Amino acid sequence: MYVGQLKTDSDGHDGSIKYILFGDGAGTIFVMNEYSGKISVLKKLDREEKPFYTLRAQAINRVTGVPIEAESEFVIKVLDVNDNEPRFINEPYIAEVLEMSPKGTYVTQVTATDKDDPTNGNNARLVYSILQGQPQFSIEIKSGIIRVASQIDRETKDQYQVIVQAKDMIGDVGALSATTTVVINVLDVNDNAPKFQQKIYEMSIIESAIVGEIVGTVLADDIDIGRNAEMTYSIEERGDYNMFDISTDSITQEGIIRLKKLVDFESRSRRYTIQVKAENKYNPELFDIATIRVYVLDVDEPPVFLEREYFMKVLESAPISSFVGSVTAKDPDSADTIIRYGILHNTHSKSFDIYPNNGSIFTIKTLDREEDLWHNITVSATEAKTPAYISYVHVYVRVMDVNDNAPQLQNVPEIYVCGKSRIEEPVYTVTAIDKDEPQLSHSFSFMQPFEDSTNANFTITDNGATILTAQDGYSYQDNPLFYLTVIISDNGIPSLSSTSTLTIKVCDCGIDNNTESCGKGGFFFNFMNSAAVIAISIFILLILVLSLLVHVRCQKKNNIMSEKGEDLKENIVKYDDEGGGEEDTEAFDITGLKQHTVMRERKPRRKIRTDIQSMYRLSLGLGPDVAIFKEFLAEKLEEANTDTSVLPLDYLHCYAFEGSCSPCGSLSSLSLTETNVSEIDPYY
C-alpha cells in the first residue's frame, strides 16, 4: 500500500538520483522506490502495538554515491481504526441489596475499557446498557452505575443475574461491544408475619396421660429467613388455656403443646379448645393465631380408691377378728364393676386381713401397743373382670393403748442412810415408769404393805415417793442393812400396781453428815469406823518396824558371807581328770577331805567358769559343818566308787565347795604323776 513520496528538487527524472530509506522499520515494514522515492508498507500495521514510526531518507548520485542533499527525517503515524472491542475489568461482579429498597438505590458499578485511540473519533467512547435485569434495575449509560429501578421482594426472587453491555463508538452502527453478568443477591428484611399451616388443629390425648406429656405440635411458616424467621408461641388466655402449656423448639421453630393438668374422660368435658399465637420474635406486631381442639380419649383404668391414704385405730386389747376399718375403691370407667380387695402381706400386715368383697379390715392376732404402735398396710383393689388392672393404697393403723402394764421403779441406785440421821429426814426419792401412754398413767402412788406399815425404820410419802427416816440414828454394828417394800400403783382403769424391795445401807457419812462419800468408797468405806482406822494404823507401824529389823540383820549376814565368799572363790578348782578307772586309786583320793583344815597362802585369782560360780552362789547358804552337806559329799563319793556301769571317761567330778578349815588344805593337792599320765590311753 502506498504511503507517501519523498522527492528532491534536484531530480531531473533522468535516473541519476537514487533514494535510500533508513530508520524504524525500514526494509521490513516500509520500502522506498529508489528511482521515484515512493514509500510503501509491506505488512499490516497495528496502532495498539506501535502508533508511529520515525524514518530517514537521503538522495545520492547513483553513479558516484555522493549525497545530493542532507538526510531528511520524517514520521509515519498509524491512524486508528475501530478494531478493538471493549473489555470489562474487575470481574466477576457480585452485589447485594436489601429487599424493599427505594427506587434509585445504588447497587454496584461496572467498568469496561477499549484499546482504540480515544482521541481519534468515537472509537474508544463507550456506552453501557442492560440487556437482562429490567425493570428491577437500571444502569447509567456513561458511568456504568447500576441502581434499583423498581421495588424488589426477596420472597419473590432472592437473586438476579443482570447482563450489562458496553459499546464503543457511542453505540453507532459498526460499533463493537462486550457483555458481563452482575449477580445481585437480595437481602432479607423482616417484613413477613408467621402463618399457621392450618387455622384449626385437632389433637387427642388419652385420659391416663401424665402432666408434661406432649399433646401435639404446631408450626407457623415465616417466609423470611435467618433470625427474621424466628418466632415464639403462646396460648391466648381464652377457653381452656390453663389446661395446657406450649413451648418453642429453637431448632425446628415448632410449638410443642404439653399437658399442664390431668384430664379425665369420665369427670368433665371430653374436648378442650385453646388458641395458640405465633409471633415474630423481634417484631411482635407480626403474628398469627390458630385454634386447637384437644379430644380426651377413654382408656380402661384400674380402680381408684376414694382416699389417697387411710388412717384407722384399734385397741390393743381388741380380740381376734375385731373390725378395724374399711377401704373403698371404684372403677372410673364403669360404676357397675365388681372390685376385689387384698392385702400385700409383709411383717406388719401379718396382724390384719381384709374381706375381699367389701374391703373391711379386721385383726387376725392380738396386738401390743408397746411392741408396735403403728402398722403400715398396703391394700390392693382389682377389677374382677380384668385382674391386670390393679391399684394400691396405704392404710396406717394406730394401736390405741389400754392400761395393761404395771409401773416399775426406774434406775434405783444404792441407797444410804447416815448413822446420825434424825427422824423424818429425806433419804432418797424414787421414780417409776410405765410402758403405757402418759394420758392413762401420768401419775403414780407409793405406799408400804399393810404388814409393814408399823415399820419403825423408814416411811415413804404417797405422791412424792420420798423415803423418810422413822427414827433417830442408825447403828452399822447393830443392823448395817434395811429392806423397804414399796407398792407402786398407777391411775389407770383398772389400776395396776407392782411391788419392789429397796435395800438401804447404813453409812457413817463423816462430819458433814453427807451420803455422797458413801458410794465412792465402796464396801471398805461403808463399814470403816474410827476405831478400825486406829487399829489398822498401829498394825501397819509394827510391820514397818519388824521389816527394818529384818533388813539390818540380813545386811550383817550378807557381809559375813561376802567375806567367806571371797575366800571360797580362791579355793575352787575344777578337775577334768577322767581317772584310770575304778582301780586307779592314785589319781583321786577322797580321804583327804576328812583331814583338818590347813591354811594356805593366797594364790593368784583363777578364771572361774560361770557354771562353777552359780554352784558357788548356791553353796553360800551351807557351812562346812552342816550335816546335810557332809552327807551329800558322802553319797556322791559312794556313788562314784560303786557305780560300775558308768565309764570313768563319761563321768565328771565337779566340786564347788571344799569347805572352810579343811584338814587336807586344798583339793589342788591331788595331782597325777607323770607315770600315771603317760599310762593313760588317750583313745580310751
UniProtKB/TrEMBL annotation:
One of its GO terms (molecular function) is calcium ion binding. Pfam families: CADH_Y-type_LIR (PF01049), Cadherin (PF00028). It is a single-pass type I membrane protein. Keywords: Calcium, Cell adhesion, Cell membrane, Glycoprotein, Membrane, Metal-binding, Repeat, Signal, Transmembrane, Transmembrane helix. It comes from the Eukaryota. The chain crosses the membrane at residues 523-552. It is found in: Cell membrane. Residues 8-88, 89-196, 197-305, 306-409, 409-524 form the Cadherin domain. This is Cadherin domain-containing protein. One of its GO terms (cellular component) is catenin complex. Cadherins are calcium-dependent cell adhesion proteins. GO terms for biological process: adherens junction organization; calcium-dependent cell-cell adhesion via plasma membrane cell adhesion molecules; cell migration; cell morphogenesis; cell-cell adhesion mediated by cadherin; cell-cell junction assembly; homophilic cell adhesion via plasma membrane adhesion molecules. The keyword Transmembrane helix applies. The keyword Repeat applies. It comes from Engystomops pustulosus.
